[in-house]
Amino acid sequence: MRTITHWIGGRETAGDSDRRATVWNPATGQRQAQVVLGSKADVAAAVAAATSAFESWSQASLSARTRVLFRFRELVAAHLDDLAELITAEHGKVVSDAAGEVQRGLEVVEYACGIAELLKGEYSSEVSTGIDVVSVREPLGVTVGITPFNFPVMVPMWMHPVAIACGNTFVLKPSERDPSPSMLIAELYRRAGLPDGVFNVVQGDRECVDALLEHPDVAAVSFVGSTAIARQIHLKASANGKRVQALGGAKNHAVVLPDADLDFASGHISSAAFGSAGERCMAISAAVAVGDRADGLVEALADRATRVRVGPGTDPTSEMGPVVTRQAKERIVDLIGSGESAGARLRVDGRNHLVPGHEEGFFVGPTLIDHVDTGMAVYREEIFGPVLSVVRVDDIEAAIALINANPYGNGTAIFTSSGAAARRFRRGVQVGMVGVNVPVPVPVAYHSFGGWKDSLFGDRHVHGPEGVAFYTRAKVVTSRWPDRAAPRESVSYDFPTGGTA
Ligand code: NAD
């Protein structure tokens, strides 16, 4: 069986641990590879390679760094289909969706290609007599990314292009469920001319993560994953003196006002709920039907849900693939059952969805549950599957209150034809990313991505200007060049001021 290894110091290595995890093919339910699970010693080797590479990479000129990133951008674009196929093989999402993920990741590389502009400092001339001040941002050192299974290329790309462009080195700990794409990314960086040790991949699980969080030479940690783990990572990394941003889970609501175009809203909500089998942190998992058009909305959503073409991600006619593991499927099926037992109405039931020829695959069909209330587990839990709940409320104020009472605050959307209602909504919701007639409002790379409340622990969002701020620290230089020929001012023992008016 194929073994997926680490990438440390510019080459593949199996490292020193004999622990392994199975990598499944979600569409067939078969084992397809094993991945090494790194030890403390493997982490130490990766951090040592990154520490040593930092000395020269942090001194490389902006032009040198930019050229590597441009070449990397071209290589990723040339290998977009290869990356998409690797994603589909291990994650299960359909190839066209996987290609979209790579494309959105590529946007971040393109943003990072502008690093010379992004790192321009600030200069103040003559802040006091003969004194100038310059503010610059310098890299941190060894930075770490710990990433989830659901976007094995895009989520790491929220981090490493910006970190590396800023002059840091990077150790990526991808999800053990779909580890292969990160190895191709490492190879593409090598071919782009990135010096050995600047980008490293350590495969593994909790043991590896703990070793990274405890390593004294790690300066900063970016994490994306479920809320329970994000909270722990934030606490532990902070306690160990590291800068940390930890993005967590989500429960995203789409509010449909009575004045919305129902056909438009139902189509977009269906896509946002069932695309990628609902395994997106920006997936819509609750439709909030406002007022008297709920029945019409439910009918339209049910019609859409029953027409989604479910099949293996490699089949170009499939619109939705399997979920990632057998355990994920079982958990989703149990949660659907819990909604039914709690009194919700199962309008479309995907629990027994069979895909001919793929009976062992981890498929769950699109599921629509109506009359869900906020006390039910199916509403409270992040299901992370193709399950859409419909909650009914009387007015927009009740919809906003419902969203704000939810512990998560990643994304949300409103469907309406009223600008005033949309404005009321965007100002009232306690959520980091808001869509107006846009169901999956993932910010483009030159803005930053991040949620509020239990969807993000830490101060900074990822990529965009917040990413550059996260991966750099400020240095402010105040300088004076005394003129030997000029008369000297007497030295004062008072606190220096900029002179009196
Ligand atoms: P996960 O939390 O299980 O795993 C994320 C990472 O943490 C993986 O690399 C995993 O190996 C590691 N990990 C798992 N358990 C750990 C532990 N006990 N200690 C230390 N490390 C551990 O998440 P997942 O199932 O891979 O991904 C799905 C989750 O990620 C969902 O909750 C989803 O909402 C979230 N997500 C959030 C965003 C966002 O931007 N907020 C984006 C994508 C995914």
UniProtKB/TrEMBL annotation:
Coiled-coil intervals: none
Protein name: methylmalonate-semialdehyde dehydrogenase (CoA acylating)
EC numbers for this chain: 1.2.1.27
CDD domains the UniProt entry points to: ALDH_F6_MMSDH
Gene Ontology BP annotations: L-valine catabolic process; thymine catabolic process
Domain Aldehyde dehydrogenase stretches: 16-477
An example Gene Ontology molecular-function term: methylmalonate-semialdehyde dehydrogenase (acylating, NAD) activity
Sorted UniProt keywords: NAD, Oxidoreductase
Pfam family for this entry, one: Aldedh
Source domain of life: Bacteria
Stored InterPro entries: Ald_DH/histidinol_DH (IPR016161), Ald_DH_C (IPR016163), Ald_DH_CS_CYS (IPR016160), Ald_DH_N (IPR016162), Aldehyde_DH_dom (IPR015590), MeMal-semiAld_DH (IPR010061)
Keyword NAD: yes
NCBIfam families recorded: MMSDH (TIGR01722)
Signal sequence, renumbered to the chain: none
